[in-house]
Amino acid sequence: MEGEKPVLELNQVSIAYSGTPILHSIDLSLYPGEIHALVGENGAGKSTLMKTILGIISPDKGEVIFFGQKRHHQSLKQIMESGISMIHQELMLIPELSIAENIFLGRENELGFWPWERKKNAQLKTAELLRDCDIPLDPATLVKNLSIAEQQLVEILRAISQRAHLILMDEPTSSLSEKEITLFRRLIHKLKNEGVSILFTSHKMEEIFGFSDRISVLRDGYLISSSNKENCTEQEIVQQMVGREMNQFFPHREVQSGDISLQVKGLGIPGLFQGIEFDLHQGEILGFGGLVGAGRTDIGKALAGLLIPQEGEIKWKNQLVKFKNPQEAILQGIGYVSEDRKEMGFIPEFSVQHNLTLSSLLDFQRWGILDKSKEKETAEGHVSRMKIKTQGVDQQVMYLSGGNQQKVVFGRVLQHLPEVLILDEPTRGIDVQAKFEIYTLMAELSKQGKSIILISSDLPELMHMSDRILVISKGKQTATLKKEETNPAEIMSYAMK
Amino acid sequence: MNLKKILIGSQSGGIFLALILMCVLISSLTPRFLTDTNLLVILNQVSVNAILAFGVTFVIISGGIDLSLGSMLAVAGVVAALFAKSDGGNVYMALLMALGVGALMGAMNGFTVILSKVPPFIVTLGTMTIARGAALIISSGRPVSDLSESFNYLGNGDLMGVPIPIIILVGTYLVCHFVLTQTVFGRYVTAIGGNETAAWVAGIPVAKVKWWVYTLSGIFAALGGILLSARINTGQPNAGLGFELDAIAAVIIGGTSTRGGKGSMTGTLLGVLFIGVINNGLDLLNVSAYWQQVVMGGIIILAVVLDSVYQKMKR
Amino acid sequence: MNLKKILIGSQSGGIFLALILMCVLISSLTPRFLTDTNLLVILNQVSVNAILAFGVTFVIISGGIDLSLGSMLAVAGVVAALFAKSDGGNVYMALLMALGVGALMGAMNGFTVILSKVPPFIVTLGTMTIARGAALIISSGRPVSDLSESFNYLGNGDLMGVPIPIIILVGTYLVCHFVLTQTVFGRYVTAIGGNETAAWVAGIPVAKVKWWVYTLSGIFAALGGILLSARINTGQPNAGLGFELDAIAAVIIGGTSTRGGKGSMTGTLLGVLFIGVINNGLDLLNVSAYWQQVVMGGIIILAVVLDSVYQKMKR
Amino acid sequence: GSKESGEKKKIVIGVSMLSLQNEFIQQVSASLEKHAKEADVELIVVDAERSALKQVEQVENFISQQVDAIILNPAEFEASSPAILRAKKAGIPIVNVNSSTKEKPDAWVGSDDAESAKMAIDFLAKKLNGQGNILIIQGYMGQAAQIDRERGAVEALKAYPNMKLLATQTGEWDRAKSMSLMENWIQSYGDQIQGVFAHNDEMGLGAMQALLDAKKKDKVVVVSVDGIGDALKAVDAGTLDATILQNAEQQGAQAIALALDLIHKKPIKESQVLIPFQVKTK
Ligand SMILES: Nc1ncnc2c1ncn2[C@@H]1O[C@H](COP(=O)(O)OP(=O)(O)OP(=O)(O)O)[C@@H](O)[C@H]1O
Ligand SMILES: Nc1ncnc2c1ncn2[C@@H]1O[C@H](COP(=O)(O)OP(=O)(O)OP(=O)(O)O)[C@@H](O)[C@H]1O
Ligand SMILES: [Mg+2]
Ligand SMILES: [Mg+2]
């Protein structure tokens, strides 16, 4: 492989945002057919590097060389036509357009001249792509009606359908569950065989080692290492990423469940889910497993007051409750972390501090007037405890890396002191170290007697962290499994039921 | 397009129903409403607003707004009149110059919006004031009259019994509908309104498309100005005061989202007709001038509220 | 607040610079500009626009818009005048009724926007028409004059040499600034404008806050109406035509984002002063009526363009 | 079809008024209503809101309603003309009230805007003994009344070489706007101002208010046009020096009479009835 000419070369690339250096003199080469994993902590600069390669950001210093050609001022369209495509970390789809229209957006001329011809071809080609990948979606569905995971699949299909020589994938699997990840793996191996180079990021160790040929580690904007997979171990990579040795990925936790806190009977919303039943004990972590689109998110929303259940009942501390909105749930001590961070998680233009105190602002006021010093103190506490990587509590959250944004959302929910936490994909896009911190936090909370519902598509996470696992399939509860008595295969079989 | 599709399948079902209801209501109150001549009168009357509304539909779908419509209309109307004087004027020249001036003003709007990232609300508000001043300056503050017969024909003549403004109305509707739904340009406009960053990342020439959108809006305003001047046989420097609000109201009533990314020309047409029918009906029913305003505002709010309820029920 | 903080630290640095430049320019052209009395005149003249602008700043920061300001102002102005007649009127009653009517209209706006999810643009456009009709109906379309001395004092009197409108202007600025930056309500308004869904999920009573925002806007419009009526000693049913655009322009010039989620009262105040200074300057310089419009629009666009360049450079 | 059954059915007259937000126009409209009632005629009164296009459309509506006659209070000289043409084409008699159009209607009753301006300037000249500095506050730019009053004032000023026009600016027919304008003028011209002519009473009252507040009213003569209630009161109180009064009552009465004559196909004595202005002073 080394003998071939590289597809992409980075030469001493440096980037700074308003004076703060983000990337330091990066050198990197990619060869045809190579699958290259780019790993690093949240905020290490992975997305920034990818955007630089694509050409959305131009480097302050250094050069990007694609197929031996140094990149000058080219439009994004020209760059993409020269053979690079990218899956962005934040979903980049147009909600009011259909799957087919999104996939061919910006490339309509490939579909023919006449409007009807284009319409027909888009439909046909998309249907073919979906069929090839075993994705049961209708090309005419509007993207706004898709779940986050399904949207991510559409993004992947779009990048693939561009027939690029180099595909940049910024956390392409962050919302996917086991089944789709298997599919994804198949897809990239097919691409590899066609000679396509792939640079991808992920925070899941199985993927990093499972998919890639080479692994490069970024830390604080420096390229620490770049080595063939065979020449390194998980331990080493993690150490290079976080700067210290990490021996375990999940904290030790003693199960000690107490009284029943939340009781759910026959819960349902026609069309979304039905017949959900469980008791949640104090100090318990209850996992929700299932495939993409199974309806777990909707159940979580119904418990947190975002959706109003139409069937069944919720008993909270032995009282029947019906939350009409999230505010009521929060006041009753129910905390909710959404899977849709960007839409439901934070206020982008607000500072870290303002986001952290948003749900508990009434604790920081007197007669409606804010006590800002107390607020600041609290926010600083969260930043240091959760190791949120930010220039300060006044930094706007939209400028934080994805993982750090997630920590801010987590901090906001913890600040209103919930007794039950509903966590929907809480570690989506979070690095190993931060994951460990969040798991530790969960363990600590459960030790304090708080109950947690963990909705997760990450099977190892689900297996390790939950005491019991409720498996949901097509809106129905198919099994309730004890952690000690089950295995991934069993969970999957119930999930497919 | 069949009825069921309009009612259920499209975003315009609610306003379509509201329009029908309104027509039934008015004709039950006065027999003068549902006559051939009156319906022609309504179509004739809405033509200018419709043309402006079609143009600004593109702008609104792209996530922008254009408050300078009425003033651009005035400038173009005056320019057209100046070139279409009965002594030595030339209609083709008049059309060309007016449309050119409209395109130029629209292009300036687009240019400023794109380059400076200043919100279009304030850019076009500025243009609204500037263009109004310009219309007054080039006409020395006086109506420009004595226009050639062939120019006036545009506003008052007919082709095989169908008044020219109505022909232009239908023509622009068809063209705009086609452009929005069937062309790459239309797709791009929708995409930009839906998620500008995503559109940009997909390689869409966002700046160029936006520029065109504002330019088109200027051209349509100019077309409206030509028609208006021809209809009243005069180029009026203070024509079109407040027309932008009527046009935007029609677009929103027609179901186009104020945030962009979603909308249809059929909806806009229905919105325009809705406003036109109410205006006409209130006059026919001899509702007193002050109450007309109250009723007009009330009906519009009611219609959009019912529409939003209807859209929710459809789900 | 020190100068450096305004120039660099805040969003309002650009417009502050533009205002200073404008003042320097005008005073270099006429010595009449930079005099105590003229500066007082300017402050007096901008007071009504400023009050409306402060109110609508909340609305715009929350991600909404209010086009009914001018009409609500007219209704409240007429109501105040009707209750403040020199024969048997009572100023306190007049104030109470006018503010009450303003609050009611604003509350109706808020109610409709929240319950129906209809875009505020169209709701308040409807209210604009309705309220204008209402102002004409309750006044029978005639100015309401012969107002009591104590009412007129509100518009023309002074307290220790400072005209009352200026005192009210400064007072409302301080209150609004405090509410926006130091209270839970202000924080909630900003959060809703920044990301409404996320604010709702975070437990903010979105509907209640929005409702309050529109109600406040109505109350401020009413306050403006009272002041205007007191200033001209008459309740005018057609007062305040187009004032909403002036107020919104001031807010946007002051750096408040049209998409909501960001903005400041200081910015709005500077925006209001900027418009007021240009208006005054153009009159002092005796620029002809037509050119006033062109210059006014041009300067506003230029100012926001320069501001956006300035903001970019600061990064 | 009111023509066929004309004997039994009530006569219907459509009226399109320039702007019902204008008090003077309201007075004309009220007079029309009053005399219509006396003659047992049904009136349909609509408001053109100062838009010629709207006015033309309203006349179209009247035609499609088959009214017996139309009374037009033109928004514009030229631009309202198509309304006349359409009515004539449809064979419906049309009468102009208050102002004129380029296209000749069947009959016209009203007064000449230019004349009112001339009277105002003459009044100022008389008060100032033919010399002094004056200011003119214009109506909304480009509208017929503004254009005609401006033309009249310019013509009239030619007769007074010692009267100097300091500045002219628009107050958009609005009291508050004109008050602000006057405040600014006081800043720039101070004690030089000796006379003010405002195109309507609203603006005259605004200017007067600004002068009163600046305690300069006793040094400045203010005159405006229309004769609305507030202006008459101000004239009586001595704060406004004069208003050029139009006789709304007469205009309305004559317009109805002419319309009825035309409907009944009676020969009309004069197709142009001029109602003179009056200078109303204390
Ligand atoms: N527009 C911006 N302005 C200022 N700082 C920024 C901006 N965008 C990103 N940053 C900072 O740059 C750093 C790198 O961000 P980047 O998104 O590349 O991280 P990442 O490695 O992709 O992290 P993650 O794993 O969380 O996605 C972060 O510290 C972030 O706060
Ligand atoms: N707005 C919508 N309109 C129509 N269908 C929707 C809408 N939102 C979600 N769905 C569908 O509802 C089903 C349940 O979605 P939900 O997000 O609850 O599933 P999930 O198990 O959490 O999966 P995921 O991992 O994708 O979040 C999915 O099939 C999804 O496509
Ligand atoms: Mg990233
Ligand atoms: Mg989910």
Automatic annotation (TrEMBL), chain A:
Cell membrane found in the keyword field: no
Organism field: Aquirufa aurantiipilula
Protein name (record): Sugar ABC transporter ATP-binding protein
Keyword match Heme: no
Gene Ontology MF: a single term: ATP binding
UniProt keyword list: ATP-binding, Nucleotide-binding, Repeat, Transport
InterPro entries: AAA+_ATPase (IPR003593), ABC_carbohydrate_import_ATPase (IPR050107), ABC_transporter-like_ATP-bd (IPR003439), ABC_transporter-like_CS (IPR017871), P-loop_NTPase (IPR027417)
Domain ABC transporter: 8-245, 255-497
UniProtKB/TrEMBL annotation, chains B, C:
Protein's UniProt name: ABC transporter permease
Keywords: Cell inner membrane, Cell membrane, Membrane, Transmembrane, Transmembrane helix, Transport
Lineage per the UniProt record: Bacteria, Pseudomonadati, Bacteroidota, Cytophagia, Cytophagales
Organism in which the protein naturally occurs: Aquirufa aurantiipilula
Cellular compartment(s): Cell membrane
Domain of life: Bacteria
Keyword Transmembrane among record annotations: yes
Record-linked PANTHER family: ABC TRANSPORTER PERMEASE PROTEIN YPHD-RELATED, ABC TRANSPORTER PERMEASE PROTEIN YPHD-RELATED-RELATED
Transmembrane segments: 6-27, 39-61, 67-84, 91-115, 121-138, 159-180, 211-230, 291-310
Protein's membrane topology: Multi-pass membrane protein
